[in-house]
Write a structure and sequence with these properties.
single chain; mainly alpha; Arc Repressor Mutant, subunit A; 2 strands
Length: 148
């Protein structure tokens, strides 16, 4: 499966917001860009999609930035991916031009179950779980670096 850079950067930015909004009231796009080595201009193209899907909202003003619209445990991966690219979790089927019993069998036994599993999995995986895993990895690597 190929995931676009837009989806990958969007998920990374949301993990950053989930983590840093706990210590800051809002998270600035430049801070997200700097911490994650992503172009701020690129994030500015992604964030309207996340705002439109009611995943983040913006706070205007000198101390403005972005916040999650809900708790990270209430935002799932499926929602994020669909906001950024609604073709990834859509039903994949074998070539529709080849109407045959073989293509029907392949769709029924392969593509439809894979898609169902992927959709189910992504609906269960929350932004909080991703942020928690990031924190685990970050704390582990920091502790490792400390002892070297």
């Amino acid at each position: 499966m190929k995931i676009s850079t837009k989806v990958e950067c969007g998920i990374i930015a949301l993990i950053d917001i989930a983590i840093h909004s706990q210590s800051e009231s809002v998270v600035k796009i430049n801070s997200i860009a700097e911490r994650n080595n992503i172009s701020a201009k690129y994030l500015e193209q992604i964030f309207p999609l996340l705002k439109q899907s009611n995943i983040i909202s913006s706070v205007k003003g000198a101390n403005g930035g972005y916040i999650l619209t809900r708790d990270a445990s209430d935002i799932n991966l499926s929602e994020i991916v669909n906001a950024l690219d609604n073709t990834i979790l859509s039903v994949t089927t074998f070539n529709d031009k080849l109407v045959s019993d073989a293509s029907t069998a392949i769709n029924d036994c392969l593509w439809i179950p894979i898609n169902d599993y992927l959709c189910s999995f992504s609906e269960k995986l929350t932004l909080k779980a991703l942020a928690d895993r990031y924190n685990e990895l970050n704390n582990t690597s920091s502790a490792f670096m400390y002892y070297i």
